[in-house]
Amino acid sequence: MTETESLSSNALSADYNHAKQSGVIKSDVKYIPLETTPSSLIASIDKFLYNDNTGLLYILDKEQGCILVFNKEGKFVSSIKKSGEGPGEYVKLIDMDVDKNGNIYVADNERMQIIMYEKGNVEHYKMIQMNEHFEEFCCLNDHLFVLRDVYGPKRRKMKLALFDSNNMKIKPLLTDTQKEIDELSILKCSKNYLYRSNNHIYYNDRYTPMIYSIDKNGSLHEAMQIVSDKYIPYSELKKMENNVPNFIQDNKHIKDLISIYETDSLFMCMPYITPSDEYMFIPKSDASKSFRARLTSQPKLSGISLPVIGVINNYFVALMNSSEANKKLTAKVDDNPILVLFTVTGKEKVTIK
Predict the structure, then answer these.
(1) 353 pLDDT exceeds 50?
(2) CA–CA dist 133, 299 (Å, integer)
(3) Would you say 67 and 106 are in contact if contact means Cβ atoms under 8 Å apart?
(4) Is the pLDDT of residue 5 over 90?
(5) Structure confidence by residue, pLDDT tens digits, 220-234
(6) Pairing assessment for the beta strands 56-61 and 66-71 based on DSSP bridges
(7) Dist CA 194 CA 214 (whole Å)
(8) How remote is the C-alpha of 250 from its chain's centroid?
């Protein structure tokens, strides 16, 4: 697939094949060491969110089954660790989200419910029964939720859905046009496919160029497309069902668009073909000036681990482990990783031949 049949007049269209390759990107870099205490040790960062209203950083750690909260300076604030089967507890923590008021929502797939902790206070909670299994969610308000990959005992029921807990109704947001393909059986390239960025929510329909935005009422809008002739034909996609080696060995096709984030002036994403540090940057003012750059080849960004995990105040966010950080920083960093915040403000173009 190379293009969608129609494109909203407000959507950006960027050409991946003809994007210039940048040898150097000018970048302002900041570091936020995440405080290491017995209560804030991080085992895995499975999702990262920054909330403009609270000024706090939220980390989903599935390995420990908890949410860790830090301030913008990296100081530990609080945590949610409520594994169990009692009221306000979760059995299998699969995802989290944070609303504009700082309420923290967690999804418990075992019991098909979402728990809302008021401003992160575990003593004040609301249990929302969903009656559906799903892989990821975003809260639009206290009763509207976007669910990704709603599935039943045998296969996927809806690829993207809107659930209203007031009337317990669910409806599809995106038509599953390729029902003969079992996407849930195909390896994923990212931990997340719903992205909160710059007060917007974005979603890519896998194996297609289209990136959608989702508004506060749960309506889907075409935001951007990454045009290319490298997307996997559906005839080839069928061969990748339950076939991890076949998926990994394919080094010709775009398998996913991941790390979809924005600042005031730029969109960024990674068209994932094979594991790489190359990202595509799309200027909002002129998508024809899109360019591609390898992040870890930049001196200021050497040592970061990818993919990019979020945005804080117009800075893109990546991670660096403590051993790499201690090579670059004068102050010693403890066990927790540090956040590397960077901007992209300029480039030197090299034409791709």
Answers:
(1) no
(2) 44
(3) yes
(4) no
(5) 999 999 999 999 988
(6) antiparallel
(7) 10
(8) 23
